[in-house]
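tokens incoming
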């Protein structure tokens, strides 16, 4: 049985004062929830998040990391640094990294492998654009994005989380229907199973893209939707917790 994971992606949002209120709400509301909760925050706030959430059931982490271990890489943050602050998860391959920072499938796969080697859990994002969906190439795109990750992580596949995030649904208020999402999640699970059938049944596949309290329940009821990667709705503790309760 896969335990549902509801992970917040704060993106480039937050302030010390605002985070304190948000984290307090999440910490209190998380007690007794069946789903696992996590927040992926901007790196400068990790110390604050660690202090606020230590001893709670909520995990934390970041939104991107360097593919390098250490050294002369100005502006980059390493996996070991995230570990130093108690992180469990780091997102890789978010569509905003792919489109605004030119990250390609190969780099993202190497980042996922770097994370696993450091004892972190990569949340590997993939998903098609609207043009790709309309051209009927959703399956092809998702497989193209996933394959290099599977090659890079090899026998450690059980240690990853996958997040299917159709680009056209991110921050737009448009969400995939539960059936549309399930179809892609099933495809992803099938692709994982080609690598390792037994590990594939344990890998959590999250849906992301305008998941909100009012649509979470039906999405999370689908057989292969094992949680959510939540952007906008993770910035309000009441909304974030309502999604977690739906899981
Ligand atoms: P959204 O973002 O929930 O605001 O659509 C999801 C994401 O980008 O991870």
């Amino acid at each position: 049985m896969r335990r549902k994971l509801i992970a917040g992606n704060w993106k480039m949002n937050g302030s010390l004062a605002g985070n304190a209120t948000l984290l307090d709400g999440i910490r209190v509301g998380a007690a007794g929830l069946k789903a696992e909760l996590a927040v992926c925050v901007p790196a400068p706030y990790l110390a604050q998040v660690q202090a606020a959430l230590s001893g709670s059931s909520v995990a934390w982490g970041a939104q991107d990391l360097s593919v390098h271990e250490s050294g002369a890489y100005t502006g980059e943050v390493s996996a070991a640094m995230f570990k130093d602050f108690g992180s469990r998860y780091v997102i890789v391959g978010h569509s905003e990294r792919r489109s605004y920072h030119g990250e390609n499938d190969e780099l993202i796969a190497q980042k996922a492998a770097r994370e696993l080697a450091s004892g972190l859990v990569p949340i590997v994002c993939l998903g098609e654009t609207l043009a790709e969906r309309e051209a009927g190439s959703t399956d092809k795109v998702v497989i193209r994005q996933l394959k290099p990750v599977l090659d890079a992580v090899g026998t450690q596949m059980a240690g990853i989380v996958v997040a299917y995030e159709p680009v056209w649904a991110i921050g737009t208020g448009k969400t995939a229907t539960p059936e549309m999402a399930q179809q892609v999640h099933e495809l992803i699970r099938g692709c994982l199973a080609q690598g390792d059938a037994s590990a594939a049944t344990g890998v959590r596949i999250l849906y992301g893209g305008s998941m909100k309290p009012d649509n979470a329940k039906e999405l999370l009821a689908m057989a292969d939707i094992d949680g959510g990667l939540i952007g906008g709705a993770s910035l309000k503790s009441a909304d974030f917790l309502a999604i977690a309760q739906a899981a």
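note: Strands lie at 5-9, 36-40, 59-62, 89-92, 121-126, 161-164, 204-208, 227-230.
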